[in-house]
Amino acid sequence: GFLIPYFIMLIAEGMPLLYLELAVGQRMRKGSIGAWKIISPYLCGVGVASVVVSFFLSMYYNVINAWAFWYLFHSFQDPLPWATCPLNSNRTGYEEECETTSSTQYFWYRQTLNISPSLEASGGVQWEQALCLTLAWLVVYLCILRGTESTGKVVYVTASLPYCVLIVYLIRGLTLHGAVNGLIYMFTPKLEQLSNPKAWISAATQIFFSLGLGFGSLIAFASYNEPSNNCERHAIIVSLINSATSIFASIVTFSIYGFKATFNYESCLNKVILLLMNTFDLEEGSLTADNLSEMKDYLMATHPQEYAHLSPQLKNCSLEAELDTAVQGTGLAFIVYSEAIKNMEVPQLYSVLYFIMLLMLGIGSMLGNTAAILTPLTDSRTIATRFSKEVISGAVCFINCVIGLIFTMEAGSYWFDIFNDYAATLSLLLIVLVETIAVCYIYGIRRFEKDLYTMTGRKPNWYWKLMWAFASPLLIISLFIFYLSDYILTGTLQYQAWDATQGQLVTKDYPGYALAMIGLLVASSTTCIPLGALVTFIRKRLKRES
């Protein structure tokens, strides 16, 4: 149900827009601001909007690397710290919060985030997380210190190492008990999702984020290409490799997810069987998973009072229910995987491998984000003549690191979710829509076609021109309408807060200042486009009058 919208978005959006951004960067030889200013002075705001979105992304994204460092440092312990619940202060039992939830969730919410009960209770900065964030930014700074030359070398490691780890995890994942259940769940079509606008928005968001469309990083990197570079071939190869990697990683994830769900399901069954055998003094082996439902009916009929007294303690074990409790984002990365890892043989080895892979992916993404910010800054003569690349890179990293301390507070996870949900998605749709309209109808598709022929010796075929001129803009407009209507229908925006007493997430309404922040995040990037055009118009008008 998700793969159909995903592949439609890949063909109609992903490949055409990736080709367009690579070609623009390669032709104009500038970062996002300079490239769009060459196409039209009125479009300088498009580049600024891309830089603002990349800046927002850099502010919060490196926190994921900080968390990965935190888990990596704890992965060398035996047993793993999230494998069991810690003892309480009296050492007479386990921590009450941990007993109401699971050891992996307790380690994530309490020992890693030390999360507050709501957004209003902001709390103080967690110094362990602040140190991990500083380390994450120091690593990024060392990778970008010498510009694209050093970045290119680092990417060889950050891009290739995750494949090695994924192959190891695939072999291990497929040999785990219950892996087949996860794969069946993954590949069983749920076609009713096709009528759900959120499935299409999710597919578009996945394409945008995984290919890096609209952030300006593609234009920045492409500006360093040779003018004769075949960017069409690169757009096709990168898009297909990207999607193949996504599906490959999904197979690995769902095999491990199947193992986790099967393990939880069988543990639930064993607890129910043990409880029934002890209560009704049944013979060893008389009650199994296969005859559990029949024995329940029999015991209910023969011992109605005892069974009624026991029934509140009998959990309804369901493999389907375990598989349906799918999670995404940080929950998948830090809870589900750590839950599965703790039940593997030699868990320390798989934990170290996994969190190194997560770091490589996170650092690789950060290199693209920072390049999208740094390239327009180094393109500026005013800044480049006064400061060296090392100073500019250091200033960007330092500013982001200081602002990023917000996400290491007790309520930092809630602010992370706000930035993750609202800082980029709507803005990217608008940026990419303006980019396609600008190239096709302001710069002119025939002129762009001639530029491509001059660079590569080949003109784009009918597919590319059809997608750029009609299909991609119409699809983005449709998604834009879906996105806005979904917000309107949702009503008050809500978030998931951790309730320590219940040991689970509860839904709460965002306070007024959080809603104002969401509006500011969306407006600060999207308004750059009309403001850029307005400033250019006023400047030209003043020049004429003078």
Keywords summarizing the entry:
single chain; 546 residues; mainly alpha; 2 strands; 74% helix; metal-binding; proline:sodium symporter activity; glycoprotein; Na/ntran_symport; metal ion binding
Characterise this structure.
It is found in: Membrane. By secondary structure, this protein is an all-alpha fold. It is 74% helix and 2% strand. It is built from 23 helices and two strands. A two-stranded antiparallel ribbon has the order 1-2. A hairpin with a 4-residue loop joins strand 1 and strand 2. It is elongated and about 95 Å long.
Indicate the percent of residues in helices: over 70%
Shape: elongated
First-last Cα distance:
61 Å
Unreliable spans are: none
* Distinct helical segment count: 23
Structural class, from helix and strand content? mainly alpha
Strand content: under 5%
Biggest β-sheet: strands ordered side by side in the sheet = 1-2
Largest sheet report: 2 strands, antiparallel
Short description:
This protein starts with a helix and ends with a helix. The chain is mostly helical and 546 residues long.
SSE layout and pairing:
Layout lengths: L2 H26 L3 H8 L4 H31 L21 H5 L2 H10 L14 H18 L3 H27 L4 H9 L9 H15 L5 H6 L8 H50 L11 H11 L1 H7 L8 H6 L5 H13 L4 H33 L1 H6 L2 H16 L7 H11 L2 H32 L5 H29 L3 E6 L4 E6 L2 H15 L1 H18 L1
Antiparallel strand pairs: 1-2
